[in-house]
Structure of Lipoprotein-releasing system ATP-binding protein LolD 1:
Amino acid sequence: MSETPVLSLEGVTRRFRSGDETLEILKGASFDLYPGEIVALVAPSGTGKSTLLHIAGLLESPQEGAVRVAGRETRTLSDTLRTQIRRDEIGFVYQFHHLLAEFSSLENVVLPQHVAGVAPREAKARATDLLTRFGLAHRLQNLPGKLSGGEKQRVAIARALANRPRLLLADEPTGNLDVHTSDAVFDELLHAVRSENVGALIATHNEELASRMDRVVTLRDGQIVAK
Ligand SMILES: Nc1ncnc2c1ncn2[C@@H]1O[C@H](COP(=O)(O)OP(=O)(O)OP(=O)(O)O)[C@@H](O)[C@H]1O
């Protein structure tokens, strides 16, 4: 592929000190994710899945290696620039929705755009469009407390996509939902990600959900390999 990856990890090494021991969780891990590509990360618990997502999301730094987001090397950047890249280029979805309880669905999706400096009218139009695509046109003014689990997670996904990120990182995005709802929300997530041409790295323990993505990778001995 001649396109620039939205995420490129090269020789990423991450160690933690634990008492007298040093744990090397990532050992020169390398991985490229391209625009519009959806990759499942299926790895046994404790092998470094969260560490990998935190590094890809610029929430922590590796001791060695390069982390490029949309072609830009990030390790040497200031915290301010890393925060800016996180805000403008990366969307996050977690197992728990983390919506702001005192704001409506619409406001929760407007807010990140507001922080990024998008004009109010444009932000509202984008939020309305996204929420409508997630079947929530009738829920725009509802507070999260009035929404079902699936609806809250749909709002969280819409919020992650609000600033048109190039990279979406998700950690068990439907892990808190019952099987039927998880299935539906996951389909909508994949559809939205494909239609926005976002590159997505989605951690899941669910092999069936993983099989719906473009490829599946795992963590083996500190490396990212095809599963
Ligand atoms: N800040 C830290 N200090 C020390 N050790 C850490 C730290 N963060 C993670 N680890 C260790 O690194 C290993 C990988 O942790 P990580 O949270 O990335 O695993 P994971 O694959 O996401 O697990 P799970 O699926 O259970 O969340 C674990 O053994 C963990 O104890």
